[in-house]
């Protein structure tokens, strides 16, 4: 059982009773605030120079990939399923507006600190590329190189063989 999740799988206090009028007013207010934040961030993004837009978009792609990886790594999948199944359409629409507002805010940050964000994205790309190279080329080569110098380390053990055990689990 994951800490913070009740036995029935719900997040305590997150969903509440969506049938009450107070909850519906709160959800619609959140939707309107989300729309306002999106429109406010779009106002600042509009001033971006058209020549640098493509560079900012490429760095944004790198940051979204990093964010998706971290979210997938740290948040269990059943949390996403619970949110998708137990939220109303108003909240789901607000989440979509929040996502677009986040993208606009990310564009503003990238525009303001272009050198720092591009450097960080470059460091992440170099780390990913070197990890890919090490995993796909160097580890396989190190095994082949060790076998060349030290001979085969095959001890005759075959996990697929019967190994003297005639017992059946069926």
Give the % helix.
55-70%
Low-confidence stretches: none
Structural class: mainly alpha
* Helix-strand string: HHHHH
Roughly what fraction of the amino acids lie in strands? under 5%
Radius of gyration: 26 Å
Break the fold down into its secondary structure elements and pairings.
Elements: H1 21-45, H2 53-74, H3 77-86, H4 89-112, H5 114-150
Helix pairs in contact: 1-4, 2-4, 2-5, 4-5
Question: Can you describe this structure in just a few lines?
Answer:
With 170 residues, this protein is mostly helical. The chain has helices at 21-45, 53-74, 77-86, 89-112, 114-150.
Descriptive report:
The protein has 170 residues and is an all-alpha fold. The chain has two domains: 1-112, no CATH class; 114-150. The chain contains five helices and no strands. It has helices at 21-45, 53-74, 77-86, 89-112, 114-150. Helix 1 packs parallel to helix 4, helix 2 crosses helix 4 (89-112) and helix 2 (53-74) crosses helix 5. The chain is flat and about 70 Å long. The mean pLDDT is 77.
């Amino acid at each position: 059982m994951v800490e913070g999740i009740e036995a029935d799988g719900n997040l305590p206090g997150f969903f509440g009773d969506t049938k009450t009028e107070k909850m519906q007013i709160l959800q619609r207010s959140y939707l309107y605030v989300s729309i306002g934040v999106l429109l406010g961030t779009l106002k600042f993004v509009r001033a971006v120079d058209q020549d640098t837009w493509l560079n900012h978009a490429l760095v944004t792609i790198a940051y979204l990939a990093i964010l998706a990886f971290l979210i997938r790594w740290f948040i269990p999948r059943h949390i996403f399923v619970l949110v998708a199944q137990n939220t109303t359409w108003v909240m789901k629409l607000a989440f979509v507006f929040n996502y677009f507002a986040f993208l606009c805010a990310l564009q503003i940050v990238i525009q303001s600190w272009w050198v720092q964000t591009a450097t960080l994205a470059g460091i992440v790309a170099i780390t990913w590329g070197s990890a890919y190279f090490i995993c796909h080329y160097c580890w396989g080569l190190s095994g082949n190189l060790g076998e060349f110098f030290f001979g085969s380390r095959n001890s005759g053990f075959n996990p697929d063989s019967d190994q003297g055990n005639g017992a059946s689990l069926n």
